[in-house]
């Protein structure tokens, strides 16, 4: 294990590197190789990957999935199965971010490659594909729960209070609702 300054992972620097990686084999492979060389910081690497993915525009999300693909395939080849296990949760959480029609079929192709090459088992791949297909339904259910608890009168009270308070006018709550 590294000592001193080298033992600390600069997450911001890594996130910046992930955000700027180009969709070329050389850059993707180089970044994936670096991540595997620093696998003792895999939690920080995976968190930085997740943050970069959430912040990225749709086309770059595909590039970040290519980086992930390179990491997990090389980890499998090198029998570093813990890397793949730790990436699994982040991958599942990332699926809703790559449902756009521009990249969806390429992401599904990555899943199929993972299954064919034994990177992840069929059960996990089926979970990923189900999430890919049913995210809208899950979000609709979550929205229904939120909407069921939403109370317009409380929201309006909050807005009136914020409006009056932000103008510097200190009025007692007006009971107009």
UniProtKB/TrEMBL annotation:
GO terms under biological process: mRNA 3'-end processing
CDD domains recorded: CID_RPRD_like
Domain CID: 6-136
SUPFAM superfamilies linked: ENTH/VHS domain
Classification via PROSITE patterns: CID
InterPro entries: CID_dom (IPR006569), ENTH_VHS (IPR008942)
Superkingdom of origin: Eukaryota
One matching Pfam family: CID
Gene Ontology molecular function terms on file: RNA polymerase II complex binding
PANTHER family the UniProt entry points to: CYCLIN-DEPENDENT KINASE INHIBITOR-RELATED PROTEIN, REGULATION OF NUCLEAR PRE-MRNA DOMAIN-CONTAINING PROTEIN 2
Protein name: CID domain-containing protein
Organism, scientific name: Meganyctiphanes norvegica
């Amino acid at each position: 294990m590294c000592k001193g300054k080298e033992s600390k992972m600069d997450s911001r620097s890594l996130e910046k590197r992930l955000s700027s990686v180009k969709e070329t084999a050389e850059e993707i492979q180089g970044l994936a190789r670096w991540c595997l060389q620093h696998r003792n910081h895999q939690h920080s690497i995976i968190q930085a990957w997740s943050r970069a993915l959430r912040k990225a525009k749709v086309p770059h999300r595909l590039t970040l999935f290519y980086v992930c693909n390179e990491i997990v395939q090389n980890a499998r080849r090198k029998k570093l199965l813990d890397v793949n296990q730790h990436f699994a949760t982040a991958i599942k959480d990332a699926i809703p971010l790559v449902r756009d029609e521009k990249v969806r079929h390429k992401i599904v192709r990555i899943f199929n490659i993972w299954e064919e090459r034994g990177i992840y088992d069929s059960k996990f791949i089926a979970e990923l594909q189900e999430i890919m297909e049913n995210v809208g339904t899950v979000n609709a259910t979550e929205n229904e729960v939120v909407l069921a608890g939403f109370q317009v009168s409380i929201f309006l009270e909050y807005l009136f209070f914020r409006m009056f308070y932000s103008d510097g006018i200190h009025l007692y709550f007006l009971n107009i609702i």
